[in-house]
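Usage

Read records sequentially. Each one opens with the input sequence:
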Amino acid sequence: MKKRFLGIVLVYLLASACGFKLSSSTPTPSGPRTLTVMTHDSFAASEQIIQAFEDQNNVKVQFLISGDAGTALNKAILAKGNPLADVFYGLDNTFLSRALVEDIFEPYDAPILSSIPDLFKLDPQNRAIPIDYGDVCLNYDKTFFTERSLPPPKNLSDLVKAEYRSMLVVENPASSSPGLAFLLATIGHFGEENYLDYWKKLVENDVLVVNDWEQAYYTEFSHYGGTRPIVVSYGSSPPFEVIFAEQPIAEPSTAVITNDRSCFRQIEFVGILKGTKNRDLAEKWLDYMLSPAFQEDIPLQMFVFPVNPAAKLDERFIKFLAVPEETAIISPEDIASKREAWIKTWTETVLR
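and closes with the structure output:
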């Protein structure tokens, strides 16, 4: 017995000297797990909101910024079966059907979904969970038009007039969700038979097409130093100009065209990616995104509406918000069956 004990001690000492660690049945404290959330470029959330989730669940949230919504979805599809992340946020109703056909999400019946209005729930199997919504509309630089004593356009039809030549910048619908939403707005407004003729006139009037919203708004839009005073953005963009102005201003210097079904309503979703090894954390993250705390953070971070009616909106957000009385409407079935064909014919007409 004594020899056996000495042998054990000798083995332990040799292992220690060589830098090895013997296994122990005594549990050791584990560090936080990592939850990876894949998003589009425009995702934003306040640090305290993220920190609260991390503290509550002993987790580190890692965000994988993956381009505009269309680009991010392509990456998620290419990684199907071996996902790049646990969760994907930023898919919208213009790309929803493609994600569902590709079967990249796992269903999740989030308990709080019973409190979310049915009009936002576009997937009966709850693979894609609605998080926020907003109206994609034409925004314009009020100062630009005032200085030139030129009235801003009132609707989509005005954009093909000579006085608005070289003024419009739009996003490519093949890569950008607001770009696709605007394309759908033109189809809903002019009809499937006439929308390409409208785009031909826009091309003749020197429309500028860029890849994503960030480039369109922060580079090409005249309000930020570009040359284009009309941009495809959101009905919620003007509050941003007031709330985050470097110097306090009484009202935004941008405005939104909401007349005559010129806007398209966009709903954004989140889903648990198939193959995640952190299903439990993914469910908690989805629950958290639907909670009033996260939902109330959304408007002042991404300037879209929360889908949870229990969330309260900031008064400044409400005051300067532009809400269209009527938006262009295309059925989800038509978007699903015709989206790729519409993008293809648009590309052939506008870019070639």
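Summary fields computed downstream for this record:
- The mean pLDDT is 89.
- The first helix runs from residue 2 to 17.
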